[in-house]
Amino acid sequence: MKTISYVIAIFLSLVLISGCVSNRVFETEMQSRDERITSLETEIEMNESRIDKHENQLAELSVTTREAYERAEEAGQLAKGKFLYEIVLSEDRCKFGLDQWELGNECQAILDEFVSRIKIENKPVFIEIQGHTDASGDEAYNQLIGQRRAESVYRYLASSGIPLHKMNVISYGEKEPIADNSTPEGRRANRRVVVVVLE
Q1: Do 81 and 51 have their domain in common?
Q2: Mean pLDDT score, 75-90
Q3: Are 39 and 73 within one domain?
Q4: What is the pLDDT of residues 155-194, one digit of tens each?
Q5: Could you tell me the pTM of the whole model?
Q6: Which residues in 57-186 belong to E strands, given as ranges?
Q7: Which site from 23, 57, 83, 169 is most exposed, i.e. has the minimal number of CB atoms within 10 Å?
Q8: Residues 6+ apart with CB under 8 A from 67
């Protein structure tokens, strides 16, 4: 009888011990899961914050810069998705006359400074070169002139050591004026190439 009582006591002790161990294992697992869930929630909040910041930055950019950003993103070229700066090569700086797309010495000097800056900063960048015209003449012809202006800059940058796969060319023609096309000054301002630099 004592032996049976002893066996029952041992059995009950083992059940209680295993129950305590199971409880501890369960609590440890639950704690670990809670920590993982908290970590994931924090990561989701950080991602949402980054997305909000990114959307706010996009909203502040010009239409053409925003479009450049979207094209670069689609092409998978952006390392961080960040607008750095842009340079505008307008007629007062680059002497793009009516129906002209060749780069003068002044324009080449501006581009040389730009290339030096890119090389000194040594960041992974994506460059979009946008050609623009005034509204004089035929729309299709203006599209072509804008393309030729952008390609002139593209060729110059490529010859200066900027890798081809880091650049994109697009013509907006007369579609994105920044000044009034009814005045000579406005038309001069609209004849330009914009170089958008994205990181």
Answers
A1: no
A2: 72
A3: no
A4: 999 999 999 988 999 999 999 899 999 999 898 889 899 9
A5: 0.63
A6: 83-90, 126-132, 167-173
A7: 23
A8: none
